[in-house]
Amino acid sequence: MSRSMNTDFIKGIIPPIVTPIRADEKLDEGVLRDHIDYMIARGISGILAFGSNGEFYMLEEDEMESILKVIMDQVKDRLPVYMGVGAVRTSKCIRLARLGLRLGARGVSVLQPMFIKPTEDELSSHFAAIARAVPDTPVLLYNNPGRTGYAISQAVVEELARRVPNIVGMKDSSGDLTETMEFIRRNRDLGFKVLVGKDTLIYPGLEVGAVGAVCSTANYMPELVCSVYELFMAGKKKEALEAQYRLNPVRLMTDGSSFPVAAKDCANLRGLGLGDPYLPNKPSPPAQMENLRRELTQAGLLETIPLA
Question: Which of 56, 125, 142, 165 fits a disulfide with 111 by CB distance 3.0 to 4.6 angstroms?
């Protein structure tokens, strides 16, 4: 099966951009604009708005619209922006996908519904309805069993990839390299684009055919994360693997924090000033903050860095 839709831009390191907020939980627009420029200057290939680390589940639709307008205005077509869709109700997902397109998103990433556990038929129909509502736009499935309580099966992914023309790829956050490989193998004749969703698996993911990765760590150490991809693509695999090994202890230490606060914590430790998470989440307690500080220091990353 061949596809006429251009998906060449779906590649590289794509951070799920965090949402910087002030003490009153309103968007800190200036910090968001600076953060976008900071990551772009250090090699990212795209931005995912309203991913898990963007705290999408904390945001009302009008807040999403305001935030996305700022993101699109600051990016100014320098790289693709993907609209993250993470609602439970199909009609709301369609509304959010269309919002993203209206404001200029190049693609849509759709998380499987949380809290409920749909049958495979229900899940397939859900994804297909969203994709068909934005027929001229590339749609990526987002498999995150750790947050939703269940995985998108290989069978559902393959069926959708072959039946719905604009479902062109996925982000796999299973953390299971066998699963990632199977998503790639079973759909490789379609040009199906698989992005790794586990920061510790960028290098092995690229080795088995992934086209890039969606990495929370690229919010606060984009130069290191992007180097894994850039070195690999340049054929410098030994150096790429060493960069992956520098990255992994930092990412693994973030698991000691309440999700998803570590991305902001690490960014703040590096001097980026991205603020606190939305309540009820709080910054990591002092002992964990010291753990994060230690790993960033050992990775050679803990210094105050300019935003420009």
Answer: 142
Token pair 């590096």 is at which residue? Answer: 270
- 236 phi and psi angles, rounded to 5 deg: -95, 70
| Residue 226 in domain | yes
Q: Which of 82, 142, 203, 229 is catalytic?
A: 142
Range of the domain at 191: 12-235
Amino acid letter for position 68: L
Kindly name the residue from 11, 171, 198, 264 that is annotated as catalytic.
171
Tally the domains of the chain. Answer: 1
Answer yes or no: is 2 within a domain: no
Is there a catalytic annotation at residue 76? no
**185 part of a folded domain:** yes
Cβ-contact 82, 109 below 8 angstroms:
yes
Q: What is the CATH number of the domain that holds 212?
A: 3.20.20.70
CB 18, CB 51: distance < 8 Å: no
**Domain annotation covers residue 152:** yes
Q: Could you list the pLDDT tens digit for every one of the 308 residues in the chain?
A: 345 789 999 999 999 999 999 999 999 999 999 999 999 999 999 999 999 999 999 999 999 999 999 999 999 999 999 999 999 999 999 999 999 999 999 999 999 999 999 999 999 999 999 999 999 999 999 999 999 999 999 999 999 999 999 999 999 999 999 999 999 999 999 999 999 999 999 999 999 999 999 999 999 999 999 999 999 999 999 999 999 999 999 999 999 999 999 999 999 999 999 999 999 999 999 999 999 999 999 999 986 444 44
Pairwise CA distance, residues 284 & 96, whole Å: 31
Q: Is 142 a catalytic residue?
A: yes
Distance (Å, rounded) from C-alpha 225 to C-alpha 43? 9
Do 229 and 11 form a contact (C-beta atoms < 8 A)? no
